[in-house]
Amino acid sequence: MALDARRTAVLALHWQVNVIKPEGFFGGMLAGPVARSGVVERAVRFHDAVAALDVPVVFTRFTVPEGEGGLVRNTRFMQAVGEAQEAFRPDAPGAQVIPEMLGQAEAGHVADNQRLSGLAGGDLPVWLAERGIDTLLVTGVATNLTVEQTARHGTDLGFHVHPVSDCVAAAAEDVHAASLANLELATAGCLTADQALAGLA
Protein backbone atom coordinates (compact mmCIF):
# COMPACT_ATOMS: atom_id res chain seq x y z
CA MET A 1 0.00 0.00 0.00
CA ALA A 2 1.45 3.36 -1.04
CA LEU A 3 1.33 6.22 1.47
CA ASP A 4 2.12 9.83 0.62
CA ALA A 5 4.64 11.04 3.21
CA ARG A 6 3.64 14.65 2.48
CA ARG A 7 0.05 13.93 3.59
CA THR A 8 0.77 11.57 6.48
CA ALA A 9 1.39 12.07 10.20
CA VAL A 10 1.95 9.75 13.13
CA LEU A 11 -0.27 10.15 16.17
CA ALA A 12 1.71 8.88 19.18
CA LEU A 13 -0.91 8.48 21.88
CA HIS A 14 -0.41 8.55 25.66
CA TRP A 15 3.27 7.56 25.75
CA GLN A 16 3.31 9.06 29.25
CA VAL A 17 4.83 7.98 32.55
CA ASN A 18 1.30 7.65 34.01
CA VAL A 19 0.46 5.03 31.39
CA ILE A 20 3.73 3.25 30.60
CA LYS A 21 5.85 3.18 33.76
CA PRO A 22 5.32 1.23 37.04
CA GLU A 23 5.27 4.44 39.08
CA GLY A 24 2.53 5.96 36.88
CA PHE A 25 -1.16 6.17 37.75
CA PHE A 26 -2.07 3.27 35.44
CA GLY A 27 1.25 1.48 35.96
CA GLY A 28 -0.25 -1.33 37.99
CA MET A 29 -2.48 -2.27 35.07
CA LEU A 30 -0.32 -1.46 32.06
CA ALA A 31 3.41 -1.28 32.89
CA GLY A 32 3.95 -5.03 33.07
CA PRO A 33 2.14 -5.94 29.84
CA VAL A 34 3.77 -3.01 28.03
CA ALA A 35 7.26 -4.05 29.14
CA ARG A 36 6.69 -7.69 28.18
CA SER A 37 5.36 -6.73 24.76
CA GLY A 38 8.46 -4.77 23.72
CA VAL A 39 6.16 -2.13 22.21
CA VAL A 40 8.16 0.85 23.49
CA GLU A 41 11.31 -0.19 21.67
CA ARG A 42 9.41 -0.93 18.46
CA ALA A 43 7.56 2.38 18.59
CA VAL A 44 10.78 4.32 19.25
CA ARG A 45 12.34 2.79 16.13
CA PHE A 46 9.20 3.49 14.10
CA HIS A 47 8.95 7.11 15.21
CA ASP A 48 12.61 7.67 14.35
CA ALA A 49 12.20 6.05 10.94
CA VAL A 50 9.15 8.10 9.92
CA ALA A 51 10.68 11.33 11.24
CA ALA A 52 13.67 10.64 8.97
CA LEU A 53 11.17 10.70 6.08
CA ASP A 54 9.91 14.15 7.23
CA VAL A 55 6.64 12.67 8.45
CA PRO A 56 5.39 14.65 11.49
CA VAL A 57 5.19 12.74 14.77
CA VAL A 58 2.50 14.23 17.01
CA PHE A 59 2.40 13.19 20.66
CA THR A 60 -0.80 13.50 22.65
CA ARG A 61 -0.77 13.78 26.43
CA PHE A 62 -3.73 13.29 28.75
CA THR A 63 -3.42 16.14 31.24
CA VAL A 64 -5.78 17.85 33.68
CA PRO A 65 -5.00 21.54 34.25
CA GLU A 66 -6.19 23.50 37.26
CA GLY A 67 -9.95 23.90 36.92
CA GLU A 68 -10.11 20.58 34.99
CA GLY A 69 -10.04 22.17 31.52
CA GLY A 70 -12.30 20.18 29.21
CA LEU A 71 -12.59 17.17 31.51
CA VAL A 72 -16.10 15.68 31.59
CA ARG A 73 -16.63 12.96 34.19
CA ASN A 74 -18.94 10.89 32.01
CA THR A 75 -17.05 7.55 32.07
CA ARG A 76 -15.33 5.49 34.76
CA PHE A 77 -12.01 6.41 33.17
CA MET A 78 -12.73 10.13 33.44
CA GLN A 79 -14.08 9.78 36.97
CA ALA A 80 -10.89 8.00 38.05
CA VAL A 81 -8.53 10.58 36.58
CA GLY A 82 -10.74 13.39 37.85
CA GLU A 83 -10.34 12.12 41.40
CA ALA A 84 -6.57 11.84 40.94
CA GLN A 85 -6.13 14.90 38.76
CA GLU A 86 -3.04 16.23 40.57
CA ALA A 87 -1.13 13.29 39.05
CA PHE A 88 -2.18 14.54 35.59
CA ARG A 89 -1.26 18.21 35.92
CA PRO A 90 0.71 19.27 32.82
CA ASP A 91 3.89 19.68 34.87
CA ALA A 92 3.42 16.56 37.05
CA PRO A 93 6.04 13.80 36.64
CA GLY A 94 3.41 11.28 35.55
CA ALA A 95 2.12 13.51 32.75
CA GLN A 96 5.50 13.69 31.02
CA VAL A 97 6.37 11.78 27.86
CA ILE A 98 8.45 8.72 28.75
CA PRO A 99 12.24 9.24 28.64
CA GLU A 100 12.65 6.87 25.68
CA MET A 101 10.51 9.22 23.54
CA LEU A 102 11.12 12.60 25.13
CA GLY A 103 13.56 13.69 22.43
CA GLN A 104 11.10 12.64 19.75
CA ALA A 105 8.34 14.66 21.39
CA GLU A 106 10.57 17.72 21.71
CA ALA A 107 11.46 17.45 18.01
CA GLY A 108 7.84 16.93 16.99
CA HIS A 109 4.55 18.37 18.19
CA VAL A 110 2.78 17.78 21.51
CA ALA A 111 -0.96 18.26 22.02
CA ASP A 112 -2.58 18.08 25.47
CA ASN A 113 -6.26 17.36 26.07
CA GLN A 114 -8.71 15.93 28.59
CA ARG A 115 -10.41 13.37 26.35
CA LEU A 116 -9.79 9.73 25.53
CA SER A 117 -9.53 10.53 21.82
CA GLY A 118 -6.39 12.44 21.01
CA LEU A 119 -8.38 14.32 18.37
CA ALA A 120 -11.11 15.56 20.73
CA GLY A 121 -11.34 18.72 22.76
CA GLY A 122 -8.53 20.63 21.07
CA ASP A 123 -7.27 22.09 17.81
CA LEU A 124 -5.28 19.06 16.63
CA PRO A 125 -7.65 18.22 13.72
CA VAL A 126 -7.26 21.80 12.47
CA TRP A 127 -3.47 21.65 12.95
CA LEU A 128 -3.36 18.51 10.80
CA ALA A 129 -5.69 19.86 8.12
CA GLU A 130 -3.72 23.09 7.81
CA ARG A 131 -0.69 20.97 6.89
CA GLY A 132 -2.58 19.01 4.25
CA ILE A 133 -2.51 15.79 6.28
CA ASP A 134 -5.22 13.28 5.49
CA THR A 135 -3.60 10.02 6.62
CA LEU A 136 -2.81 9.06 10.21
CA LEU A 137 -0.60 6.25 11.49
CA VAL A 138 -1.48 5.55 15.12
CA THR A 139 0.81 4.25 17.87
CA GLY A 140 0.18 4.19 21.60
CA VAL A 141 -1.26 2.60 24.71
CA ALA A 142 -3.79 1.26 25.32
CA THR A 143 -5.07 -0.37 22.14
CA ASN A 144 -8.65 -0.69 23.39
CA LEU A 145 -8.76 2.79 24.94
CA THR A 146 -7.07 5.86 23.42
CA VAL A 147 -5.90 4.02 20.29
CA GLU A 148 -9.31 2.65 19.36
CA GLN A 149 -11.15 5.82 20.41
CA THR A 150 -8.81 8.08 18.42
CA ALA A 151 -8.76 5.81 15.37
CA ARG A 152 -12.54 5.68 15.19
CA HIS A 153 -12.82 9.42 15.80
CA GLY A 154 -10.23 10.20 13.12
CA THR A 155 -12.07 8.00 10.66
CA ASP A 156 -15.32 9.84 11.36
CA LEU A 157 -13.50 13.14 10.79
CA GLY A 158 -12.53 11.93 7.31
CA PHE A 159 -8.91 10.89 7.88
CA HIS A 160 -7.51 7.66 6.49
CA VAL A 161 -6.43 5.99 9.73
CA HIS A 162 -4.03 3.04 10.04
CA PRO A 163 -3.35 1.66 13.52
CA VAL A 164 0.25 0.40 13.60
CA SER A 165 -0.45 -3.03 15.03
CA ASP A 166 2.98 -3.79 16.50
CA CYS A 167 3.35 -0.29 17.99
CA VAL A 168 0.29 -0.47 20.22
CA ALA A 169 -0.41 -2.56 23.33
CA ALA A 170 -3.08 -3.24 25.93
CA ALA A 171 -3.32 -4.72 29.42
CA ALA A 172 -4.23 -8.16 28.04
CA GLU A 173 -3.34 -9.84 24.75
CA ASP A 174 -6.90 -10.97 24.04
CA VAL A 175 -8.20 -7.43 24.54
CA HIS A 176 -5.44 -6.08 22.28
CA ALA A 177 -6.27 -8.62 19.55
CA ALA A 178 -10.02 -7.96 19.75
CA SER A 179 -9.50 -4.22 19.48
CA LEU A 180 -7.26 -4.59 16.43
CA ALA A 181 -9.86 -6.86 14.83
CA ASN A 182 -12.47 -4.14 15.37
CA LEU A 183 -10.18 -1.50 13.92
CA GLU A 184 -9.40 -3.60 10.87
CA LEU A 185 -13.01 -3.02 9.86
CA ALA A 186 -13.61 0.41 11.38
CA THR A 187 -10.56 2.17 9.85
CA ALA A 188 -8.53 2.09 6.64
CA GLY A 189 -6.88 -1.04 8.03
CA CYS A 190 -4.09 -2.02 10.41
CA LEU A 191 -0.48 -2.00 9.24
CA THR A 192 2.69 -3.25 10.87
CA ALA A 193 5.53 -0.78 11.27
CA ASP A 194 7.39 -2.44 8.40
CA GLN A 195 4.34 -2.23 6.14
CA ALA A 196 3.82 1.44 6.96
CA LEU A 197 7.46 2.28 6.29
CA ALA A 198 7.40 0.35 3.02
CA GLY A 199 4.30 2.30 1.99
CA LEU A 200 5.94 5.61 2.83
CA ALA A 201 9.11 4.68 0.95
Keywords:
201 residues; alpha/beta; Rossmann fold; five-stranded parallel sheet; 9 helices; 5 strands; 17% strand
Give a verbal description of the structure.
The protein is of the alpha/beta class. The chain has one domain: Isochorismatase-like (Rossmann fold), CATH 3.40.50. It has nine helices and five strands, in the order βαααβααβαβαβαα. It has a five-stranded parallel beta sheet with strand order 3-2-1-4-5, with helices on both faces. Strand 4, helix 7 and strand 5 form a beta-alpha-beta unit. Helix 7 packs parallel to helix 8. The longest helix has 14 residues. It is globular, with a radius of gyration of 15 Å. The model has no long low-confidence stretch (mean pLDDT 97). One of its GO terms (molecular function) is hydrolase activity. This is Isochorismatase-like domain-containing protein. Keywords: Hydrolase. InterPro entries: Isochorismatase-like_dom (IPR000868), Isochorismatase-like_hydrls (IPR050272), Isochorismatase-like_sf (IPR036380).
List the helices and strands and how they pair.
Layout lengths: L7 E6 L3 H4 L6 H11 L1 H14 L4 E6 L13 H8 L15 H9 L1 E5 L10 H7 L4 E7 L1 H14 L3 E10 L3 H14 L6 H8 L1
Parallel strand pairs: 1-2, 1-4, 2-3, 4-5
Helix pairs in contact: 3-9, 7-8
InterPro entries: Isochorismatase-like_dom (IPR000868), Isochorismatase-like_hydrls (IPR050272), Isochorismatase-like_sf (IPR036380)
Protein name: Isochorismatase-like domain-containing protein
Pfam family, one: Isochorismatase
